Amino acid sequence: MSDEGVRLQKVLAQAGVASRRAAEDLIFRGRVEVNGEVVREQGLRVDPATAVIRVDGKRIPPQQPHEYVVLNKPRGVVSTMEDPHGRPTVADYLGERGRLFHVGRLDADTEGLLILTNDGDFAQRLAHPSYEVSKTYVAEVAGQVTEATLKRLRTGIRLDDGPVQADQAKLVQGLGDRSLVRVTLHSGRNRIVRRMFDAVGHPVRKLSRIAIGPVKLGDLKPGAVRDLTRDEIGALLDLMKL
């Protein structure tokens, strides 16, 4: 057995999965995988920064000095760390946290989920369209949205910068002269949801992003910040093939 690395049960304990004794039991019962192989060997040493570790199929993120947080960006806040015009920025909501960078943007009039991190590789992949991390929005739009319109959004429409289609588009509620629509798509193009609804004749009145891949906004209040959970980071790492 190599003397390099850290004992697997210690890595699991430090990640908050279980106590060392309970981690040994998980290993004994074949519930732990390292780099795609079930491990039953007690005392196996691994590199916690690079080993792909799963417990019951769920990815355990590597131990690194990085921060990963979710902000419920309020409406009227710009997705920058500094603004020359004196408008409120996402940096105003981070408190004593270190220097973080937002992954992608939400325009000032759009509220909701924004991920921030100091992990450059993570941020670059999460923002890159080739990894197809979905984003889900709830849009309040003008007029009564019909099933035919929802089908157009799902089938695809052509905008000035090319075609785009929603993975899912569902009417949540009709409200007289307006509608609430839940939309999931992979495109990260500028103001894409607003432009899609403009194209089908239902301008957006209010827009909120409620999910990025497995990360959900939930009941996080506007302006509040929370850390991503271990399961959320692990699921994102898998989606981005990190």
Name the helix and strand elements from N-terminus to C-terminus, one letter apiece: EHHEEEEEEEEHEHEEEEHEEEH
Number of helices: 6
Let me know the average pLDDT.
91
Under the CATH scheme, the architecture of the largest domain is 2-Layer Sandwich
What's the number of structural domains? Answer: 3
Strand content: 25-35%
Please report the distance between the alpha carbons of the first and last residues: 27 Å
Q: What class would the helix/strand composition place it in?
A: alpha+beta
Low-confidence stretches: none
How many E strands?
Answer: 17
Which key terms come to mind for this protein?
Alpha-Beta Plaits; 4-stranded antiparallel β-sheet; 242 residues; 9-stranded mixed β-sheet; 3 domains; Structural Genomics Hypothetical 15.5 Kd Protein In mrcA-pckA Intergenic Region, Chain A; alpha+beta; single chain
List the SSEs and their pairings.
Layout: E1 6-7, H1 8-14, H2 20-28, E2 32-34, E3 37-38, E4 45-46, E5 53-55, E6 58-60, E7 68-73, E8 101-102, E9 110-117, H3 120-127, E10 135-142, H4 147-155, E11 157-159, E12 162-164, E13 168-174, E14 178-185, H5 192-199, E15 204-212, E16 215-216, E17 225-227, H6 230-239
Parallel strand pairs: 9-15
Antiparallel strand pairs: 1-4, 2-3, 2-5, 5-6, 7-9, 7-17, 8-9, 10-14, 10-15, 11-12, 13-14, 15-16
